[in-house]
């Protein structure tokens, strides 16, 4: 073939290419769109199970018409670790571990106010990069069939909390006082917290296209982690705040469950007859009350925490176990007789810093809680589940407190104990749930 012939034929070849190339590109684009969401930096295959909203009927959680029992955990750090690509894998890994253990719910922070990697950098101002990290957390949970309890603010100073709101308002000259408890009664601060809640609830996940308030991956909202108002032991200030904020959330999002975030203490003002349940008298004067705070209609379930090491510093191990049993049974009974609502133990832990600590003690402590939950669930009681504080993955030892659990590193007996609880709760639900957990059970 001569050069002249080649030049004469090249337009025809070019014409064929001009027809074929767009067609090939369209086919590739179509196939790709079937398997992938537009996931930006994450670009993760869509392999997520279909989730339904969890509801409540009386003292039971209900999923697809049947009772839903929870074996779960806390990993407060998910959003923080999802911000940077170098640590994002930890979020995916922890959900994979949770799935292998048959765990169904994870509780985590949906707040970081003015701290490092802050979601809210100042009053009403948000960092989109961090919001995208929270989007990723929700998407990864969804992929693994895990539901989330998202806590909206901290009573403690960690990750900003109510202290940061008061500082912001004080520095801007709009605060009534610099008292931390003004978070609950200062009109300006209350308004800003409503802005925060609305921003979270109406956030459209950039990875899934679903607004948070429409996403069944979210099991429930939690108003505050461990709310206390020491300046008003009567409890009126905190009660008014709970009533106002819970009604506001429900006006925006009627699909999700809502809880307060209580530790479970009884107040001297409202329940004198239950004061012997509290670990110490001081806890009756912190402005919260398990029954009064949980009883209002917008609150769907009650929460309790269990930390006998912190509450009974001088007690021996057996005394702590006895206290835990009494603490749980009283609250479950209140869920049935006083509230007609589920009771969820959203945090429990045993310190490894105790004098003479042995890993077997943590197993005994866990098993005691698991048995109480299982026995209540088996009788259709209000004890609906418990969440370990807290679970990490290998390489996060520097993030650990004295309560952390590393499933990859723990004794097989603890690993199996957690897994067995998931399996027997699944068996209570139905065979379909066992099938979902077939790799675990």
Q: Can you tell me the overall shape?
A: globular
Strand tally: 13
- Strand fraction band? 5-15%
Largest sheet: 8 strands, parallel
H/I helix tally: 14
Structural class by secondary-structure content: alpha/beta
Notes on the protein architecture:
This protein has 441 residues and is an alpha/beta fold. Helices cover 44% and strands 12% of the residues. The protein is built from 14 helices and 13 strands. The strands form three sheets. The chain has an eight-stranded parallel beta sheet. It has a three-stranded antiparallel beta sheet with strand order 1-2-3, with no helix packed on it. 44% of the residues are buried.
Topology:
Layout: H1 3-35, E1 55-57, E2 60-63, E3 66-67, E4 70-74, H2 78-82, H3 85-100, E5 105-109, E6 120-122, E7 125-126, H4 128-143, E8 147-151, H5 161-171, H6 182-185, H7 187-201, E9 218-222, H8 236-252, E10 257-259, H9 290-295, E11 302-306, H10 308-311, H11 317-339, E12 343-348, H12 359-378, E13 383-389, H13 412-429, H14 431-436
Parallel strand pairs: 4-5, 4-13, 5-8, 8-9, 9-10, 11-12, 12-13
Antiparallel strand pairs: 1-2, 2-3, 6-7
């Amino acid at each position: 073939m001569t050069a002249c012939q080649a030049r004469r034929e090249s337009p025809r070849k070019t014409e064929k290419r001009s027809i074929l190339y767009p067609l090939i590109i369209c086919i590739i684009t179509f196939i790709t769109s079937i398997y992938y969401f537009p996931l930006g930096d994450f670009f993760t295959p869509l392999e997520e199970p279909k989730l339904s909203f969890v509801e409540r009927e009386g003292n039971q959680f209900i999923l697809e018409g049947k009772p839903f029992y929870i074996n779960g955990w806390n990993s407060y750090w998910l959003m923080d670790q999802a911000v940077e690509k170098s640590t994002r894998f930890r979020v995916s890994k922890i959900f994979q571990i949770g799935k292998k253990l048959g765990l169904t719910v994870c509780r985590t922070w949906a707040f970081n106010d003015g701290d490092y990697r802050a979601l809210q950098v100042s009053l009403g101002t948000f960092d989109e990069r961090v919001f995208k990290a929270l989007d990723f957390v929700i998407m990864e949970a969804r992929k693994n069939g895990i539901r989330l309890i998202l806590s909206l603010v901290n009573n403690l100073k960690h990750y900003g909390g109510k202290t940061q709101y008061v500082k912001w308002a004080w520095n801007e000259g709009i605060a009534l006082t610099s008292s931390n408890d003004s978070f609950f009664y200062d009109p300006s601060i209350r308004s800003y917290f409503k802005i925060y809640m609305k921003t979270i609830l109406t956030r459209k996940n950039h990875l899934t296209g679903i607004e948070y308030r429409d996403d069944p991956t979210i099991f429930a909202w939690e108003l505050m982690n461990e709310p206390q108002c020491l300046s008003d032991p009567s409890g009126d200030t905190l009660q008014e705040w709970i009533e106002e904020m819970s009604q506001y959330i429900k006006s925006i999002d009627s699909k999700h469950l809502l809880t307060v975030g209580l530790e479970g203490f009884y107040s001297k003002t409202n329940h004198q007859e239950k004061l012997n349940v509290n670990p110490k008298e001081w806890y009756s004067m912190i402005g919260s009350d398990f029954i009064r705070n949980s009883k209002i209609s917008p609150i769907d379930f009650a929460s309790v925490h269990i930390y006998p090491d912190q509450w009974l510093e001088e007690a021996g191990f057996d005394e702590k176990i006895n206290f835990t049993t009494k603490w749980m049974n009283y609250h479950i009974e209140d869920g049935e007789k006083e509230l007609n609502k589920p009771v969820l133990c959203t945090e429990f832990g045993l310190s490894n810093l105790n004098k003479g600590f042995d890993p077997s003690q943590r197993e005994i402590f866990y098993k005691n809680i698991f048995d109480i939950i299982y026995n209540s669930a088996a009788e259709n009681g209000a004890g609906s589940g418990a969440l370990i504080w807290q679970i990490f993955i290998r390489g996060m030892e520097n993030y650990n407190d004295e309560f952390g659990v590393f499933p990859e590193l723990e004794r097989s007996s603890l690993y199996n104990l957690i897994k067995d609880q998931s399996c027997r709760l699944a068996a209570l639900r139905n065979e379909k749930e066992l099938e979902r957990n077939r790799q675990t059970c």
